[in-house]
Amino acid sequence: MLLSQYRRRLYRRISLRYLIVALVLFVIINLVEAFSIHSALQQASLEQPIAFGHQKIFIVGIHWNSENILRDHWIPAVVALAKAIGPKNVFVSIYESGSYDNTKAVLRILDQALEENGIPRKVVLDETTHADEISMTPSASGWIEVPNGTTQLRRIPYLAKLRNIAMQPLYDLQDANVAFDKILFLNDVVFTVMLASCPAYNQVLLTPDQTPDVQKLLSTRGGDYAAACALDFSKPPAFYDTFALRDIEGHEAVTTEWPYFRSRESREALKYGKPTPVTSCWNGIVAMNAKPFYQTPQLTFRGVPDSLAKFHVEGSECCLIHTDNPFSREQGVWVNPNVRVGYNEHAYKVVNPEGSKGWISTFSIARSLWINRLLRWLTSPLFKERVMRRRVEQWMEKRPNSHETGPSCLINEMQILTWFGWAHV
User: Fold this and answer.
1) CA-CA distance, 106 to 96, in Å (whole number)?
2) Torsion of CA 255, 261, 263, 269, to 10 degrees
3) Which domains does the chain have, with CATH numbers?
4) Cα gap 390→422, rounded to integer Å
5) Four-CA torsion 142, 143, 144, 148, nearest 10 degrees
6) Mean pLDDT value of segment 20-36
């Protein structure tokens, strides 16, 4: 009896020791991994971008009610960027429509500043408001009947139309034998440019150990890409543009916090600050190879067909542009995790802290890795993706000659334009 009790106590002690040893090893392994990743991220952030050189860059922006960030950050940065690229190698195309704040007024300031610096540009300030758009007689495309029986203007085809209008100077210049190497799409975000280009702006946002965002983005993979995107933030640590970002396997992000992705290939590259392969992205700033925009058929922005949208299916025009792009398969679509932009100054500073300690702490790395693992183990995208596949199949059964190139972009939503923005139905 005593011997049996002794054996049980001994077994519990040995088991407890093994458990303690296992826990210690577990902590050590995770800390080593976190320190290794932290060091790699620091090293990756120090890589120097390639100079603009003689490549010709077409800059595009569309705006609606973005007065404050335009005035305080975006306009000074765009002027500095255009000057850094050089008047002979840049064109700035801006399209604004229907803002009810002072966006038009600040864009006139941009137009004047670009003119004073000899920068070629086209700044269109359209008086047509959302209220005007939705009150028009429905046309053959871009409208949809919603559950209450009314016909409403679809948001995504409307945005695609605006982006295509903003791209028109590219084709007008082609007729004059002017062609561009890269197209740079700029959302209304805070971003940095050359240190010496715009002192008043950079005193707020650039420190000596930082490199300019746009140069870093354009330098992704030495400039060899169909598209390269930044990471965008409005309320860090969550990234913003979940609508367009898909990992290399076509899945939505498993979490909005680092390291984001479900796909191992995408996740492992991002973890170590390397160019990250994805199916699609937008995320604040996008650089694209200009060649597919000159080809026939021409690469343009679009939404999913109205007939497919009736199945309660939607897809971002900023996602579909990549799935339509033949260069995406040849050169790839990439996220550069070392380029992080913000929709406000606070967000920018949080994800681009001063000093060389890195933008994610070692503790946050260890914590986020496990959150990502648990979510990958405990959740699956298969049900949501199967629902979308089934709706596309139903659509194709009714329209046998129809085809959708961007199944990874599709989500279970219906979006319409409203006078104050947009809404789900």
Assistant:
1) 11
2) -160
3) 57-372+382-424 (3.90.550.10)
4) 27
5) 150
6) 77
Q: Is the pLDDT of residue 38 over 60?
A: yes
Write down the pTM of the prediction.
0.91
Residues 6+ apart with CB under 8 A from 271: 37, 40, 259, 369
Among 92-101, 241-250, 395-404, whose mean pLDDT is lowest?
395-404
Contact 183, 294 (CB under 8 A): no
**Pairing between β-strand 121-126 and β-strand 90-97 as defined by DSSP bridges:** parallel
Angle, vertex CA 56, rays to CA 62 and CA 206, nearest 5? 65
Q: Cβ(416)–Cβ(154) under 8 Å?
A: yes
345 CB burial (10 A radius; 0-12, 13-18, 19+): middle
Reported as type and span, the H/E element at residue 319 is helix 317-324
What's the gap between Cα 377 and its chain centre?
26
| Burial grade of 166 (CB within 10 A; 0-12, 13-18, 19 or more) | buried
192, with CB counted inside 10 A (0-12, 13-18, 19+), is buried
Least confident residue range of 50-64, 135-149, 168-182, 348-362? 348-362
3-state secondary structure of 334: strand
Structure token digits, residue 300: 């343009």
Question: In which element (H, E) is residue 390 found?
Answer: helix 382-398
